[in-house]
Amino acid sequence: MKDKVFVTTAIDYTNDVIHMGHAYQKILADCLARYYRNKTGRENVLFTTGTDEHGTTTEKAAKARNVEMKAHVDEISAKDMLELASLDISYDRFIRTTDPDHKKVASEFFAKSFHNGDIYKGKYQGLYCEGCETYKTLSELDETGQCPDHKTRQIQKLDEENYYFRWSKYTDFLKDLISTNALKVVPEGKRKEMLGFIDQGILDIPVTRPKYKVSWGIECPVDATQVIYVWFDALINYYTEGLAKGFWNDDTEIIHVLGKDNARWHTLLWPAMLKSVGIAKLPDHVLVHSFLSLEGQKISKSRGNVIRPTELTAKYGTDPIRYYMLRFGPLLDDADISISTLERVYNADLANGLGNLVARTAKLCEKWNISLSDDNISANQHLWDEDWAKPIQQFIQQFRVDLVLQNIWEQIKAVDKHINESEPWKITDETRAREVLVWEAGQVLEIGRKLAPFMPSTSQKIIAQFSAQPIKVADSLFPRL
User: Fold this and answer.
1) pLDDT tens-digit profile of 314-372?
2) Which of 31, 232, 429, 477 registers the highest number of CB atoms within 10 A of its CB?
3) Which one from 4, 22, 72, 256 is the annotated catalytic residue?
């Protein structure tokens, strides 16, 4: 691992407020950022998320509401930030593509690629999905001629003059980059999928739209009648903040976290764009997660089954939602969230599992006036560097946060088993009682520290309770539903 870490999420369209399908990657990225802050120091980690505010989807959404464009994107961005706050997402910057610094960097980036000979004027005749804001080939549509990810949107047939990016020029570069794992695309299935796209043949891609068709965008710096294509604009947001904060260099590990519908742009287009303008530093990892559905159906505004983070956190709390998503979310394959499953997991893993362990251990400690020594309390300040934490480190390096939580819950079960077998409530000898309970309380404190990247509020409560002199009973962490 390098000295610094830069974690990003994809930025979200402002046609509507984000829902849980968008929020999963924010929780995942936040977990990684919190882990690396603990391991390397807060000053060595940068974490960004934000909104992609240009393009036709945003423009149409504002017009449908009869709201001025700037007012619309301001409102959606503010609401997105409230949704993220409900999940305790600890980003360092919420970047917006309408921010002046980003517009400046994106314009300069485009101009440099143009002057380097990688952008040229041409005529596009083909298909376009407004939902994806991407150009489509017939092979990318389903049997009905629709985009598989946006079946309710009519595919558009475009005939317009644009500026093209010489994407095909970088075919060999991209194949080498991904096949050698110089850019690590995980999981492995997504890496193979990206290599498959390359083998099908990379074609040059339009990177502007005529202003008379799409007025809401960054003006093309070489032609005032055009605006920069939304994807070319949006990808540059990472460089905007990374460069400004000193996190776009060889000392930094860059980790992009995104959904599988965005994988091609981040793994194939973005590195080619960077190469085009002479930026040697490329992303190190692209973590591609799958889709989240709700009660067996794709989460979609048109279906009327959108569920937002604030709705879930208001009822179940922030950390239970973070736990459920990180343990059972679509990390490797598509996953489904159901309220019945969420409540079953809450009761089994949190109320009857972690919460019960903390409560019963604290009660036993209070009976004997147990305090952990300064050595017990401080020994795990840098727990991720301890030998026993190496399996967890390996899981994190593989981005398998689900396996880290599985490991922690195995420890919870082991401590519960120890309590049941040692039966400290039956011990009458104070020396023996203290010996047993100090070990058990130390394990609970260790669990609390391990949970810091995953369930930050719960972690803080456990650490405070079991660092107290003496340990006291506190309110239940997870009241049973």
Assistant:
1) 999 999 999 999 999 999 999 999 999 999 999 999 999 999 999 999 999 999 999 99
2) 31
3) 22
Which residue segment(s) compose the domain that 410 sits in?
Answer: 338-467
Whole-model pTM? Answer: 0.92
Active site residue 150: yes
Q: Please report the beta strands in 280-362, taking only residues with DSSP state E, as ranges in sequence order.
A: 285-289, 292-294, 297-298, 335-337
Show Cβ contacts of residue 354 under 8 Å, excluding neighbours closer than 6 positions. Answer: 409, 412, 447, 458, 477, 478
- 301 as an active site residue: the answer is yes
Is position 365 annotated as part of the catalytic site? no
pLDDT digits (tens, 9 = 90+) for 1-24: 789 999 999 999 999 999 999 999
pLDDT confidence bin for 380, thresholds 50/70/90 = very low
Say whether 60 is catalytic. Answer: no
Q: Longest C-alpha distance within the chain, in Å?
A: 87
Active site residue 298: yes
CATH number at residue 172: 3.40.50.620
Provide the domain count of the chain: 2
Q: Which of 301, 367, 390, 417 is catalytic?
A: 301
Q: Find the catalytic residue in 19, 39, 266, 285.
A: 19
